[in-house]
Structures are given as C-alpha cells and as structure tokens.
C-alpha cells in the first residue's frame, strides 16, 4: 500500500498517486467510520477520501513546523508509515502501509519527486500544482 500526495498550505490536494491497495484500504476505513457515526454518504471520490484522512495530519505538520518543532513522520496503526516534507508552499506526503519502504527511503522519494517536478515546471510550479 503506497501513496504520494502534494498538498498546498490550505491542505487542498494538488497531486496524488495511490495504488489500488491503499485506495481499497481507505474505502474500508471510511465505511467503518460512516457505520460508527450512523451516516452513509454517496461514494466519495478518492481526492475527498485523501483529504478526509490526511488534511488533519498535514495541518498538524504545518503548525508544528511553524513552532520550530518539526514532525517528519508518523507510524500509525496497521504499520502505516507517513512521511512529511515541506518544499516551498507545498507539503509532500509519502505513505507506505506494507512495510516495504523505510522512512529514509520515503524521504528520498519525496526529494526525488520534488526535483522531477522542479525540472518539469521550473519557476512556475505554483501555477500547476
């Protein structure tokens, strides 16, 4: 279960890429949440699910970073590893749920992804993501 997201300062998702296993896991978790509160929503799009699950974490990351108490990674239930990295005005988030990637590898993946985006879009990056 792997995913990569780019969120802006308002925690809107500018880019995401998740595999089918992570997508299915998020749908299952949303069903459990909806059943526990007694509401049943229509099928949500994946962007909405990602925002529901990761916006609070990204907001916490932004607040802690502004307080000079940076948070770089979280190990959640089910051995999910979530790594955050801020580049400019965007927060990059990498997720691994199957234990196949370490924290160092996810940090490197975020650096490489940022570099590729910078090479593709250059100084006008803010317009595209």
From TrEMBL:
<dbReference type="GO" id="GO:0016192">
    <property type="term" value="P:vesicle-mediated transport"/>
</dbReference>
<dbReference type="GO" id="GO:0031085">
    <property type="term" value="C:BLOC-3 complex"/>
</dbReference>
<dbReference type="InterPro" id="IPR043972">
    <property type="entry name" value="FUZ/MON1/HPS1_longin_1"/>
</dbReference>
<dbReference type="InterPro" id="IPR026053">
    <property type="entry name" value="HPS1"/>
</dbReference>
<dbReference type="Pfam" id="PF19036">
    <property type="entry name" value="Fuz_longin_1"/>
</dbReference>
<protein>
    <recommendedName>
        <fullName>FUZ/MON1/HPS1 first Longin domain-containing protein</fullName>
    </recommendedName>
</protein>
<dbReference type="GO" id="GO:0005085">
    <property type="term" value="F:guanyl-nucleotide exchange factor activity"/>
</dbReference>
<feature type="domain" description="FUZ/MON1/HPS1 first Longin">
    <location>
        <begin position="2"/>
        <end position="122"/>
    </location>
</feature>
């Amino acid at each position: 279960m792997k995913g990569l997201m780019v969120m802006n300062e308002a925690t809107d998702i500018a880019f995401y890429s998740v595999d089918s296993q992570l997508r299915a896991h998020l749908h299952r978790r949303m069903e459990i949440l909806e059943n526990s509160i007694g509401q049943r929503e229509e099928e949500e799009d994946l962007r909405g699910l990602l925002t529901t699950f990761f916006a609070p974490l990204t907001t916490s990351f932004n607040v802690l970073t502004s307080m000079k108490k940076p948070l770089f990674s979280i190990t959640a239930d089910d051995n999910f590893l979530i790594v955050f990295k801020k580049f400019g005005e965007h927060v990059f988030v990498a997720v691994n749920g199957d234990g196949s990637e370490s924290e160092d590898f996810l940090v490197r993946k975020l650096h490489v992804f940022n570099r590729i985006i910078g090479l593709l879009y250059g100084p006008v990056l803010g317009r595209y993501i």
